[in-house]
Each structure stands twice: as structure tokens, then as C-alpha cells.
Design brief:
By secondary structure, this protein is an alpha+beta fold. Helices cover 44% and strands 16% of the residues. Strand 22 and strand 23 form a beta hairpin. Helix 11 packs parallel to helix 12. The termini are far apart.
Length: 870
């Protein structure tokens, strides 16, 4: 009985263990029979967990911010600036609450081309990271601003692709230099994008800081793979050794060999081979770029291309893929998926499309296992395009010229990187002043003519001043339209032909209600500018001329008030005013109520004390003007037809051809220029919104500014507010007077140059930072231009364009058979009459003025004044 107790106790102890084992075996059997229940529970748990994660990720992504980085044309970042920006992005990707899933913890770089810009560079991330992302590490050459939401319209054809790193898992991408810009292949891939076909190409790079456990797991996978590779290599070596032993490398073969050797007494001829051990794995080499924790990120690269024309989106995706090849090194970017004959299973397939669209829409980052990179590998994508990137000019940046559109101003023919050509233009409301520089015959006048003709056909008013007259015969073929004939006026002072016809202009005329002091000031300043007078060198001449003009203008105002404008005085009556006491007395008597006391006092007290030769310097220019029959006929009429202020307001096309560049012609040009300045400033009397744009074109600025430098300079400074926009052409900037050159370069909206000597071109290229260099511009072909323009408030270019040729651009508008009709209409609109008829009228005008003064001068005042002013 005593021995049975322990046995019973042991049986009782082992009973529960056996029972437990029995139950476990029964449960395992049940599970093996009902395995589908376990699989269903696991699947349900996974789906519930995924739904919860998606819900929280969507909630975390509901508040995101977007910034757009706009680089200037001088943007040239350093590697350190780009690297710091990358660290900033990686840090910002983690700026989310603790409960946010990892897929929502990312910062996105968006490179987008939709026709509005060559390549827009945007940053998107959590709203909580806005402060960090708004820090600009690139300095003043990059503008960081809040980006507008992008609303895409649906396109007919869309292709999607996700890119994954292929090659050695731990090998880095190629180290791409910053010059040329690493983004250049991507820019070239979208350079021929056609917005009118709804084309779109967008690249999204999501950057995410890796978790420690994911990094450790990846390292273990890589090390396990390295060890497995070492073992496989050792086994392969062992097989090679066995093959070298003739297949006899076995224990039995060696035992038989030993027995046979003892019987025969011969020595052993075989040796037992031992399989080589696997080589030791170098962890640093096995882990590669994953060996260190610093600057290591996970990335997700998604691409979408769309278009409304079949095949265009697929072609664009292929071009983008080719653009990403520039980063290929030990590893490279390849599209994720696989191909089965003509079918490709990728981002577009229904198996993956929903996941792709969700990540694309919400900005979630779920990178493939292989997409581990160091920050240095992404330098080409961590910045906007730099100065070393050739950006194409899209229609949204530089519009295409449309004939008859009053909002556009023709500039030239632009050739895009894909070889397509289009005629480009600037917006008229932004083109205030324009300067064209280049050697003779380079095409600057042809370009100005094409621009002026396009502006005229669009309904705009202009004035083309050409001292050589060559532009008028060139333009008539394309202006000879019925709609333009009634608006075209020709002021030709060359006196060509056997019976020339000349227009007329009275600078002193008051029939249009001009302000008397403005007329006097304009004429006096024109004389002073053309003759080099100033208060230091010729104070007396300026005083005499101003006093005489004041009286004559007052007389003309009285004649117009009396309804007798045909009795107005002209410039040639200044001589009678200072040399004929009787005429002077009558004029002062008629004008006494219109002159202030200071002018009366000067004529009464100062003028009689002047020496007889004091007025010679004032009269000499008048004599020269009177000696030329054309200028005498043009300036000697009481009521002139030429009125530039009326031409401005009525959109006239005025062609002015001075007779030459001699002293007399310079004086006449100075008078015309100063009158233009006066007329432009006089537009202050109408509201700004009602001022009609007017464009004066000055060919050969060197000739024109030689007579009126301060006047031309004042136009470039003042005319913008009056909607008078000056265009000037010159061969040499250095030959222009300093005031004109400084005002012109400071206010030019458009700056253009053709080929020429490097010394002549250098001042223009210096405005562009010598990009392009003077040497490069000097070697351009004929009619080629480099042009910088203002579009949408920013400078575009310098861009190389081909100068427009009238016979090409306006071939459809050529009307050579109607040229005589145009010339006849232009002379008629200018009031041009035969030269001899105008000369006779100018000769008899002094008598008519004297008769008017005699009739309207009070008797008492006439006697008193004649005694006081003799």
C-alpha cells in the first residue's frame, strides 16, 4: 500500500498535462478542418484596421497647405542651400499629431506643366508645417508665395505611373551636376505641351522620414540577403570543386581508394576536398546608402499625364520617363508593374488604380520597399529651375500674335525647342516704351514697321517719324486698305517731284483752344534745345523770343475769338514783332488784355534799351526757316491742318518725314517733338480711362535727339501716365545724349538688339547681366533679335526671336494696286496743297495780320503804345 501511493500521485499529476495536450491537438484538428474561419477573421481584422487607418489618414490630410516657389532668371543655388532645403522638407513631413498614420506624414513636391508655365514648382504638406516650409533657404532670387488651389478639368485620356528604384537596392542614384540644370530633361519633355489639346503632365515626389523599426527591418532584410548570397556563392564554389574532382569526392570513394592502395602498396592519389566556408559579409558594403541614419528618407514618385487627343498622354509619359533617366546610376527610376505581351499591369490597371488615385488625391505616401534615398540623391528635384535651365516660352507666358487684336503688339517669331515657330507679341497695355538697337540693315526698322502696321490694323493710333522717308513706301502696300485710308495722314517735307504737295502747321495757332502759356513754352523750349540755348549762355535770346511769342499767341487768341483764325500770326512774324515798331504797337494794343503786367513792363522798359544787334541771334533761325520754301510753306499758314493732339484722340496714323538732318531740319524736328510733348501732357484734361493709347515711333533716334534731347527724355519719363507710348530705334546707344539714354534705359518695357559690334551691344547686354554675352549677340544672323519684354508684370527674356518681315507676316494684307489711293488719301487728310499755293499765302500773311491788328486795336491804346514801345 505504501508503494502504490507515489504511483497514484504521479498519475494524477500527468493527467492534466495529457488532457491539455489532447485539447490542443483537438483544437488544432478543428482549426485545420475549419481554417477558412481563421482566414476570414484575419481578413476582417485587416480590413477593419485598414479602414480605421484610412479614416485617420484622411482626417490628418484634410488640412494641408500649398506654396509655390518662383525663381528669378538669376537663381543659382549652392549645394548647401539645396541640402538645407531638403532637410527642412524632411523635418516638415513629421509635423503632424501623434495619432496621424505614417502614410499621411509626408511633404510633396509637385512639378506641373499644364500650359500656364513651363514647369510650376509647388510644395504641399500638413498645415502645421506651414511655418517651417515658408522659410526660404534660397534667398531673394526665389519668391515663396501661397499657391492657389488647382482645379483640373476632366480630360479624355489619362495615364498614370508609379516609379520605383531598380538596380542594386543599396546603390545610390547618379550624382547630377547643377550645371546644366538637372530639371532640364524634364523641362524639355514638356516643352512642346499643347494647352489647347488639354495636355497635362505632373510629377509628384513625396518625401517621408522613415521610422526606426522600418529602417531596422530593411537593414535586417538586406543583411539576410547578403548572408544568403554568401552561402549560395559558397555552395557554387563547392560544386565547382566537386566537378574538378571528377565526381569522386565522397567518403565511400576515398575508403575504397585506401583499401586498394594497401593491397597494391601504392600511395594515395586522391585527396579529400572540404567545401569552402561562406565569406564574411561586410555590413557597410551590404547596407550601402542605408548604413547611416542621417539624411535618409523614403520617397514616392507618381506621374500623371493627360490629354484630349488619343496617344498624346502616353507619348508624354514616355518623354517624362526618358527625362528621369538622367538620375540613373547604380539604381534608376523605372515604372512599377509588369508587362504581359501588349498589356501592362501598372498604375493604370484596375487592380492598382484606386490605390493610386487615393494617394494622388489625398497626398498619402506609401513608398515601395526599394525607395530609400539619401538627401544628396534628390538635389536635382529639391529646387525650382535655375538660371542654367532653358525654359520654353509658352503661350500663357508670351502670347501669340493675332492679327487685328488691339490688346497685342507684335514682337517677332519665336522658335521653341521642339522646332515649332510662332509669332509672339506683348500686351499693349504693358508695353509702355520700347528701344531697338542694332547695326544698319539689321532689321530694327522692319520690326518697328511690322509692329506699327499691326497696331494700325487693330485700330490703334500712331505717329511714325522717319527722317529718311524710306519707311513710307515700304509701309504703304500694307496700309492701303479702305478702313485705314480715312485715318492715314502724310506730312512729307522733302518736296519731292515736280509739283510737291505740302501740309501746314502753325505752332502759334490757337484755333483748337490750347493754353497760351503751354504754346509759348513749347516753342521757346524747342528753340533753346535745338540751338543749345540755356539761361547761362543765351539768357537774353530766350527772353526776347519768349516775350515776342507771348504777344503773338495773345494776338492769335484774339483773332480766333473774333472768328478770324485765317488772320493769325505765324513764327515768321517774330521778326516784325522785334523790328517793326508800328506792328509791335498794334500787336500789344490788341493783346493788352491778354498779357500780364510783367510782359507789358518788359516791352515798355527793357526792350527799348537793348542794342540793335541783340535780336540777331533770335532772327537768324527764322531767316533759315523762311529761306527753305518747304518749311516756309509748312509753317507760314495761319490755320494749320497738322494737329497732333487731335490725331492722338482720333486714332490717326500720322507719317512724318522731315526733309533731312541739317540745322534747319533739326530746328523743325525740335518744334515737332516739343509740340508732341505738349500735346501728350495736355491730355490731363480728360479722365485716364478715356485716354486713347497712342504710339509714336522714332526712327534714327540719333538724328532726332540731336535737336531735342531734353524733349525726348521727358517723353520717356512723362508719357506713360498719358497713354502715349514711345518706340525708339537707334544704331548706337552711346551716341544718344545722356539724358535720353538714361531715361530710355530706365523706363523701357521692351529692349531689343540685333547683331552689331561688341562695343555697341555691350550696354544692352549689360542690362541683362551679360546673358547672353555681347560676343554671342554680335555673331547672330541677320534679322535675328534678342528681346526682353514685360508680360504680366514680370520680365520675360531676353529671348531670341526672328524679326518679322512684312512680306511674310502681312502677306495677306498686301494691297499694291491701292497704294496710289492711299497716298492721295493721306495727303488729303493732311490738308496738303501745292507748294506754290502755300508759298503765296505765307508771303501775304503779314499783310492780313497787320490789317486785323489795325481793325481791332483801340485808337487811344494804339497811339499810347506806339510812343511807349518805339
Amino acid at each position: 500500500m505504501e508503494s502504490a501511493a507515489p504511483t497514484l500521485t504521479g498519475a494524477m499529476a500527468t493527467g492534466p498535462v495529457v488532457g491539455l495536450l489532447t485539447e490542443l491537438l483537438a483544437a488544432a484538428g478543428w482549426l485545420s478542418t475549419h481554417w477558412y474561419l481563421l482566414a476570414a477573421a484575419a481578413a476582417l481584422t485587416t480590413m477593419v484596421g485598414e479602414a480605421v487607418v484610412r479614416r485617420y489618414a484622411a482626417r490628418a490630410s484634410s488640412q494641408r497647405m500649398a506654396l509655390e516657389l518662383v525663381a528669378s532668371r538669376h537663381f543659382e543655388p549652392t549645394m548647401e542651400e539645396i541640402f538645407r532645403h531638403g532637410l527642412q522638407l524632411a523635418r516638415a513631413s513629421a509635423a503632424l499629431p501623434w495619432w496621424a498614420p505614417r502614410r499621411a506624414r509626408a511633404v510633396q513636391i509637385r512639378l506641373r506643366a499644364d500650359g500656364s508655365a513651363p514647369l510650376r514648382y509647388r510644395l504641399e504638406g500638413p498645415a502645421s508645417s506651414e511655418r517651417l516650409l515658408s522659410i526660404n533657404p534660397f534667398g531673394p532670387d526665389v519668391t515663396v508665395r501661397a499657391a492657389r488651389p488647382i482645379v483640373d478639368t476632366s480630360r479624355t485620356y489619362t495615364v498614370r505611373a508609379e516609379f520605383v528604384l531598380r538596380g542594386r537596392p543599396v546603390a545610390p542614384l547618379r550624382e547630377v551636376p547643377l550645371e546644366p540644370d538637372p530639371l532640364q530633361p524634364l523641362v524639355d519633355a514638356v516643352s512642346d505641351l499643347k494647352a489647347e489639346l488639354g495636355e497635362l503632365a505632373e510629377i509628384r515626389l513625396d518625401i517621408q522620414q522613415p521610422s526606426r523599426w522600418a529602417l531596422r527591418l530593411r537593414r535586417r532584410q538586406l543583411l539576410a540577403g547578403a548572408h544568403q548570397a554568401a552561402r549560395v556563392e559558397a555552395q557554387r564554389s563547392a560544386r565547382w570543386l566537386r566537378q574538378g574532382a571528377g565526381g569522386q569526392d565522397s567518403v565511400l570513394a576515398h575508403l575504397q581508394e585506401q583499401l586498394s592502395d594497401r593491397g597494391s602498396g601504392a600511395g594515395s592519389s586522391r585527396r579529400l576536398f572540404v567545401a569552402p566556408a561562406p565569406q564574411r559579409v561586410d555590413e557597410k558594403e551590404a547596407l550601402g546608402k542605408l548604413a547611416e541614419d542621417e539624411q535618409l528618407v523614403r520617397v514616392q514618385l507618381l506621374v500623371v499625364c493627360a490629354a484630349n487627343q488619343e496617344g498624346r498622354a502616353t507619348e508624354r509619359l514616355a518623354q517624362v520617363q526618358a527625362g528621369l533617366d538622367v538620375f540613373g546610376g547604380g539604381s534608376r527610376w523605372l515604372m512599377r508593374g509588369w508587362r504581359l505581351g501588349p498589356w501592362r499591369i501598372g498604375g493604370d490597371h484596375w487592380l492598382y488604380r484606386s490605390s493610386f488615385e487615393r494617394r494622388w488625391r489625398l497626398g498619402h505616401c506609401r513608398p515601395p520597399r526599394a525607395n530609400w534615398v539619401r538627401m544628396q540623391e534628390l538635389t536635382g528635384l529639391l529646387k525650382p529651375p535655375t538660371m542654367h535651365c532653358r525654359l520654353p516660352l509658352l503661350a500663357a507666358e508670351l502670347p501669340s500674335f493675332a492679327f487685328g487684336d488691339p490688346q497685342l503688339l507684335l514682337q517677332g517669331t519665336y522658335r521653341s525647342p521642339d522646332g515649332r515657330e510662332r509669332v509672339v507679341a506683348t500686351y499693349a497695355q504693358e508695353t509702355f516704351f520700347e528701344v531697338g538697337v542694332g547695326k544698319a540693315g539689321g532689321g530694327k526698322t522692319e520690326r518697328a514697321l511690322a509692329q506699327a502696321i499691326g497696331w494700325a490694323h487693330a485700330g490703334g493710333g500712331l505717329m511714325f517719324v522717319d527722317p529718311h522717308r524710306d519707311s513710307w513706301p515700304r509701309a504703304t502696300t500694307f496700309l492701303a486698305h479702305e478702313s485705314l485710308m480715312e485715318r492715314t495722314s502724310l506730312i512729307d517735307l522733302n518736296g519731292l517731284g515736280p509739283s510737291p504737295r505740302v501740309s501746314s502747321w502753325n505752332p502759334l495757332g490757337m484755333q483748337h483752344g490750347q493754353a497760351a502759356h503751354e504754346v509759348v513754352e513749347a516753342i521757346a523750349d524747342a528753340y533753346a534745345s535745338a540751338l543749345g540755348w540755356d539761361d547761362a549762355t543765351a539768357p537774353r535770346a530766350i527772353t526776347i523770343l519768349t516775350a515776342a511769342l507771348a504777344v503773338l499767341v495773345a494776338v492769335n487768341a484774339a483773332a480766333c475769338q473774333a472768328g478770324r483764325p485765317e488772320d493769325q500770326a505765324t513764327l515768321f512774324h517774330v521778326r516784325a514783332m522785334v523790328t517793326d515798331p508800328a506792328f509791335r504797337a498794334l500787336a500789344l494794343a490788341v493783346a493788352q488784355d491778354r498779357l500780364d503786367e510783367e510782359i507789358h513792363s518788359w516791352w515798355r522798359a527793357v526792350f527799348p534799351t537793348l542794342p540793335p544787334d541783340a535780336c540777331a541771334v533770335v532772327l537768324n533761325p527764322m531767316v533759315r526757316l523762311a529761306a527753305n520754301p518747304v518749311t516756309r510753306a509748312f509753317l507760314g499758314q495761319p490755320v494749320g491742318v497738322y494737329d497732333i493732339r487731335t490725331a492722338m484722340d482720333s486714332r490717326m496714323i500720322v507719317w512724318v518725314c522731315p526733309g533731312g538732318s541739317g540745322p534747319t531740319d533739326r530746328l523743325l524736328t525740335a518744334l515737332l517733338a516739343r509740340d508732341l510733348l505738349r500735346a501728350g501732357r495736355s491730355r490731363r484734361d480728360i479722365p485716364e480711362a478715356q485716354r486713347v493709347p497712342f504710339r509714336p515711333y522714332f526712327d534714327e533716334l540719333i538724328t532726332l535727339t540731336g535737336s531735342a534731347p531734353e524733349t525726348i527724355a521727358a517723353m520717356f519719363e512723362d508719357f506713360r501716365k498719358y497713354k502715349v507710348h514711345v518706340h525708339g530705334m537707334t544704331q548706337l546707344l552711346a551716341r544718344l545724349p545722356t539724358p535720353v539714354r538714361l531715361s530710355l534705359m530706365q523706363n523701357a518695357s521692351t529692349l531689343a538688339t540685333t547683331a552689331g559690334s561688341t562695343s555697341a551691344i555691350a550696354p544692352v547686354t549689360a542690362e541683362w547681366g551679360d546673358d547672353p554675352s555681347p560676343e554671342r549677340v554680335a555673331t547672330m544672323e541677320r534679322f535675328a533679335h534678342y528681346v526682353s519684354m514685360n508680360v504680366h508684370g514680370r520680365r520675360v527674356g531676353p529671348v531670341k526671336v526672328q524679326g518679322p518681315h512684312l512680306d511674310t507676316v502681312f502677306a495677306a494684307q498686301a494691297r499694291p494696286k491701292q497704294v496710289p489711293d492711299l497716298e492721295q488719301a493721306a495727303l488729303t487728310n493732311a490738308g496738303a496743297l501745292p507748294l506754290h499755293q502755300l508759298t503765296e499765302r505765307a508771303t501775304g500773311q503779314l499783310g492780313r495780320v497787320r490789317s486785323f491788328l489795325a481793325e481791332h486795336a483801340p485808337a487811344a491804346s494804339r497811339v499810347r503804345l506806339s510812343k511807349g514801345y518805339e
